[in-house]
Amino acid sequence: MLELIKVKYDQDIKKQLEKRFIAFDVETTGLNPKEERIIELGAVLFENGQAVQKFNTLVNAEVEVSEFISNLTHITNEMLENQPREEKAYKMFQEFMKEALQGEVLVCAHNAQFDMSFLKKTFDRLQLTGKICYVDTLQLSRKYIHGPYNYKQGTIAHYLHIKNENAHRAYDDAYVCGQILNHIVKGSFQ
């Protein structure tokens, strides 16, 4: 079982995030975590505001990827054929996320409920355990960044002059999410 704890953003959490956090993102075959699967995992470890380590893997979840999802993510069924199956992919992911899965390093995601619900469903299905404490950059953006016409990750990134060459790919979106969190932690929104 994966235990998920959304933490309240306060001065203590801000200090932790200034030092170290992992930004996280997934690409999936659809929107419903009960029926759909994760096909890409991306995570970036940030220390003192800098990306210092990354994790990225496609996942052969042994399901068909629709044309709509392929057009959105540029992930095709052919690309997934020779990628690690879930058991192997999540073993590698657990190794990268070891401290985060022990609740020792905070995790961030944009619209975290989406990513975390997929992660929890997969961990539970594969009988993996862990505890993740996380913040949601979508909610933090709504609270601290005033001016964008919406709070989609791409809009916030553009507003903060953060480039994303590969939107809707897990590593790139995780990296951008981490950059957004850095802006929020520093209080630099212009």
UniProtKB/TrEMBL annotation:
CDD domains membership: DEDDh
Keyword Electron transport: no
Gene3D superfamilies: Ribonuclease H-like superfamily/Ribonuclease H
Domain called Exonuclease: residue spans: 20-190
Keywords on record: Exonuclease, Hydrolase, Nuclease
GO MF annotation list: exonuclease activity
Protein name: 3'-5' exonuclease
Organism: [Clostridium] ammoniilyticum
Lineage: Bacteria, Bacillati, Bacillota, Erysipelotrichia, Erysipelotrichales
